[in-house]
Amino acid sequence: MTASAYTEFYTDVYRPLVSAYHGRLIDAASIQDEQRDYASVRADFIEPRMRERSCKTLLDVGGSTGVVAHVMKERFDLLATVIDPAPLEIEVARALGLKTITGFVEDYDSGGATFDFVVLCQTVDHLLDLSLSLSKIHHLLSEEGLFFVDIVDFRAAYRRNGSVEEAIKIDHPYYLTDKTMRAYLARTGFDVLAIDYAADHLHVGYLCAHGKKSFDALPDPASVSEQWREIRATQNSLPVV
């Protein structure tokens, strides 16, 4: 998709589409409680590192209705900004008293301002250009700042479901594993300080800081070959009769 088409998708199509896909209403109101619980657990994981730094500002990239940003704002006493391409969800975030930006982080001009804490929660799989977005976040993060990002581990998903198709999410352009996400972070110039393996056994979270770029970082070839064999075996397994 082009950026303009993706904006249209998140304006008119995204929530009705995922609601139909999951067979239940998923909108700005229905996700509130789930998002608060999610944010509280992530804040518990992040808090020890936050105590080591003097963070004052937060940027929530793909922050939707602002629930996660609001929880982080209250927990860590931050001045919070949410950026998201969906106008209706941005309205909800604004009602929480958060500063809001309607659009994509790749297009955002901060005027040279940086943020002490940047989060990319349940969003990285939705991006149009993962490398570009991570590079922009790296640029927006203050020198001593913290960056949190989490993925749905594709390998965990297809192993749990016993099927690649059942691991596909209709709104995800990217399907990441722990090894590929670590490579993306290293290539961008992030050091991983701590890793959170969520209770759902699907999400993996990475708390990062500025580090040295590893331009040629890739998952090792042996692990890639192993995963391809695993995918083929999953897809070609005989049905239970």
Keywords:
single chain; alpha/beta; Rossmann fold; 7-stranded mixed sheet
Describe the structure.
With 241 residues, the protein is of the alpha/beta class. It has 8 helices and 7 strands; from the N terminus they run ααβαβαββαβααββα. It has helices at 3-22, 32-50, 67-76, 87-95, 130-140, 154-161, 178-188, 221-235, and strands at 57-61, 79-84, 99-102, 115-120, 141-152, 190-197, 203-210. The chain has a 7-stranded mixed beta sheet, with helices on both faces. Helix 3 links the parallel strand 1 (57-61) and strand 2. The longest helix is centred in the N-terminal third of the chain and has 20 residues, at 3-22.
Number of distinct helices: 8
What is the CATH topology? Rossmann fold
Could you report the average pLDDT, rounded to the nearest whole number?
Answer: 91
Low-confidence stretches: none
CATH class: Alpha Beta
What's the CATH H-level superfamily name?
A: Vaccinia Virus protein VP39
Secondary-structure element pattern, one letter each:
HHEHEHEEHEHHEEH
